[in-house]
Amino acid sequence: MRRVVVTGLGAVTPLGVGIRRTWSRLLDAHCGIVNVTHRDPRFADLPCQIAAVVPQGTRKDGCWTASEWLSKDAGFALFDERKMAKFAQYAMAASEEALEDAGWKPTDFEQREATGICLGSGIGNFDEVYDTVVAYEKGGYRKVSPLFVPKLLINLGAGHISMKYGFMGPNHSATTACTTGAHSIGDAARFIACGDADVMLAGGAESCIHPLAVGGFARARSLATSYNDAPEKAARPFDADREGFVMGEGAAMVVLEDLEHAKARGARIYAELRGYGCSGDAHHITAPKENGQGAFLSMKKALKNAGILPSAVDYVNAHATSTVVGDAAENAAIKTLLLGSGGRQRATEVNVSSTKGAVGHLLGGSGAIEAVFSILAVHEDVMPPTINLEKLADGFDCNYAPGQAQERRIDVALTNSFGFGGTNSSLCFSKHA
Fold it and tell me: Ketosynthase family 3 (KS3) domain spans which residues (predicted)?
């Protein structure tokens, strides 16, 4: 099995467009959650009126205007915003940044044949579905756009990117709810490890901040509803007063590469992807088991795949969405895995944080952006903060970096992603030796 390393990073997030801007603002404890009632009057009828949205504005200010990223001048003549779902637009921009960062835009046929893409989304183009259903009900067949199906299919995100860059390797698209981004990166790594590709562009993307989508999660009692007038305080991972997550949008992409291939071309290596673990709760459509057994199994399998002991884990980027049951179950799972025989001796030695307080929950994109944060934590020896953590409940006695980032040696990091239906995935990154 070939070793897999990370050589490029890209992101479009509620903290800004570009991974450097996002990362610096994350470490400075900024928050990208805002009130969204100005976007659509129907939000005012919902119990949750907030979301983590990509900031609109000019590219030079680190914000998003589609035409600046997808125009002919930007080299995207065939991929304008009319033909692409917004999640695919975000993924395209994040991919461009990641490929530039990696210095990998091959023109040689054999190199493009050995480069693939694995991009997923949890929900995809929700707006297109809603708008087309409404148009069809009012006007019938002639109101259905010929682009309806191409803009609807989740795998078209990967398709657009492969066409843009001419990548002819594995063209793969995972859709596993909020575990999508992690599954995409883990699956891509296995394509490389098994010799199906030398380089893979991998990640997740989401953009479904629509009144019906928010309303659906609110009816499922999954969202924070008490902070419409103070949105920056709404996402509270691990906090005793947490009450639910905040929907977010954006994309994150990584360039994964066979180690020997990366070394041969002198690429910068951020980290090595050492382990990938997956599991199923086999329990409930939305809630984990209280003891976090599914989370425990995915982390355990990732460490087994990596050949790393629990005692070597320096940081866990938790899925922790701010739900009462979910955060408690994951916290229990982390402690079961990392404390005791083969692990740390005291809970205070277990370093855990959740970045969802800052960027919200990107659903299908969450596992990808949190993988990027974990890679940078390893690369720069810094643990990103858990913002809005003001009061710990019983059982929460690890080090959660409340309120501010912590500089510390991080040789090994785990990042967790869990989704509705009981699907779980963990990725293990380490410094490259």
Answer: 1-431
Q: How many domains does the chain have?
A: 2
What would the pLDDT profile of 251-298 be if each residue is shown by its tens digit?
999 999 999 999 999 999 999 999 999 999 999 998 898 899 999 999
**From the centroid of its chain, how far is CA 255?**
14
207: Cβ contacts below 8 Å, ≥ 6 apart: 54, 85, 86, 87, 89, 90, 249, 250
Question: Is residue 272 one of the residues assigned to a domain?
Answer: no
Q: What is the pLDDT of residues 136-157, one digit of tens each?
A: 999 999 999 999 999 999 999 9
Q: How confident is the model at residue 77 (pLDDT cuts 50, 70, 90)?
A: low
Q: Which amino acid is at 168?
A: M
Alpha helix ranges (H) inside 103-198 = 109-113, 126-139, 148-152, 156-165, 180-193
CA angle 207, 71, 26 (to 5 degrees): 45
Which among 264, 288, 308 is the end of a domain? Answer: 264
Nearest to 201 by CA among 172, 230, 179: 172
Cα angle 177, 404, 244 (rounded to 5 degrees) comes to: 35
In a domain? residue 269: no
In this structure, are 316 and 252 located in the same domain?
Answer: no
> The whole model's pTM is what?
0.97
- Which are the catalytic amino acids? 178
Q: What is the CATH number of the domain that holds 56?
A: 3.40.47.10
- Name which of 185, 417, 424, 395 is nearest 297 in CA terms: 424
* Residue 111 scores a pLDDT above 90: yes
Domain that holds residue 416: 277-430
Q: Encoding tokens for residue 323?
A: 């739900």
Distance CA 316, CA 25 (A): 20
Q: What is the rounded average pLDDT for all residues in the chain?
A: 95
Closest CA to 319 of 424, 389, 405: 424
